[in-house]
Automatic annotation (TrEMBL):
The keyword Transmembrane helix is annotated on this UniProt entry: yes
Domain of life: Eukaryota
PANTHER family: CHITIN SYNTHASE EXPORT CHAPERONE (PTHR35329:SF1)
Gene Ontology CC: endoplasmic reticulum membrane
Keywords: Membrane, Transmembrane, Transmembrane helix
Record-annotated membrane-spanning stretches: 67-86, 123-143, 149-174, 186-206, 226-252, 264-284, 296-315
Keyword Membrane among UniProt keywords: yes
Listed name of the protein: Uncharacterized protein
InterPro entries: Chs7
Length: 331
């Protein structure tokens, strides 16, 4: 019977599920006889622990690695880099004109922040960008299963994922203007929690993979691949952060700004994110069994990047770029 925190079903049913790399090493070093089928040979084993379907390591049985997702990751990296550049170049004109011409406007419209959340949103995009090459390495079937390199890269990947979802939620909190964005009072707690989620998740992930201590590993019983802390940080936390983010942005857009159009961006981003997860957890195995060379992870990657792009347009729609032109200048 599956218990809370068990990864056994996920590692068996979901192709290219990255956190299974941590458990593969755990099983390999504590009871390698539990590894059967395509997982038995670590030099060719795909991502997963005794998976129903997986992409063999590159060079084995004609495998080209997870080629579809490699291409999708390459596209996502380029596109996310463009979003970072666009975010950096974009600035609410209130930075330049607030002292003289826009003071009254800023008084009348208190949510017109000094920087439009540009710094914090850019941090979110940078963190997301960094998860992509790590995903490529941890799920691309390049590195040998159970190897030190793959285990360490997967742990860093998990750390960046947890930190990225905090950055997402942090942007929503800052959008409520509890503190002014782009200032020390905003950036210090924002950065602190980024580092806290990053460090805590990496430590737990490394302990699961390398079993330095008995606190987070090995699983007991080993076959369950259980780690409650890892499950919370890689599954529960991202889902909770995404839901809370949507609720907070709904409050900001509909409650504070009294706007409707930007809300459709957030709804669309939420739909794309949900579709990416449905594809990854449900459709990926179907595609893998049908092709035996690719799985559905490339679709999930593209949908996630599309969701991030929509979030950029949502953020742009509520930061009033038109201030850089002559909208209202009190005389």
């Amino acid at each position: 019977m599956t218990k809370f925190g068990d990864f056994e079903t996920l590692c068996h049913q979901v192709p290219s599920y990255p956190w299974c790399n941590l458990f593969y090493r755990q099983v390999l070093h504590h009871n390698a006889s539990l590894l059967t089928g395509i997982s038995a040979n670590s030099s060719s084993a795909p991502v997963g622990v005794n998976p129903e379907c997986g992409i063999l390591r590159v060079g084995h049985d004609g495998s080209l690695a997870n080629i579809a997702n490699i291409i999708a990751c390459g596209f996502s990296m380029i596109f996310t880099l463009l979003l970072i550049v666009w975010t950096t170049r974009r600035r609410a004109a209130v930075v330049n004109v607030l002292p003289d011409r826009m003071r009254l406007y800023a008084t009348l419209v208190p949510w017109t922040s000094r920087y439009g959340g540009r710094v914090e949103f850019r941090i979110f995009l940078v963190l997301y960008f960094l998860t992509i090459p790590l995903q490529l390495l941890s799920t691309g079937s390049f590195l040998e299963q159970g190897s030190t390199a793959l285990t360490a890269i997967t742990a860093v990947h998990a750390g960046f994922v947890a930190a990225t979802f905090w950055a997402l939620l942090g942007n929503a909190i800052i959008s409520t203007q509890l503190v002014e964005d782009g200032t020390i009072s905003s950036l210090l707690p924002f950065g602190f929690f980024v580092l806290a989620f990053f460090a805590a998740t990496i430590y737990i992930s490394l302990d699961v993979g390398f079993t330095f201590t008995s606190v987070f590993g090995p699983s007991s019983p080993l076959v369950d691949l259980n780690s409650i802390a890892l499950f919370i940080l890689t599954s529960i936390w991202p889902a909770a952060a995404a839901i809370i983010y949507l609720l907070l942005m709904t409050y900001v857009v509909l409650g504070m700004l009294n706007e409707v159009r930007p809300m459709w961006y957030y709804v669309l981003a939420a739909v794309l994110f949900v579709l990416s997860q449905l594809d990854f957890f449900l459709l990926s195995k179907v595609i893998c069994k049908a092709s035996d060379k690719i799985d559905g992870s490339f679709i999930a990657t593209l949908l996630e990047t599309a969701a991030v792009a929509i979030l950029y347009f949502a953020w742009r729609s509520i930061t009033e770029e038109s201030w850089e032109e002559d909208i209202y200048y009190p005389r």
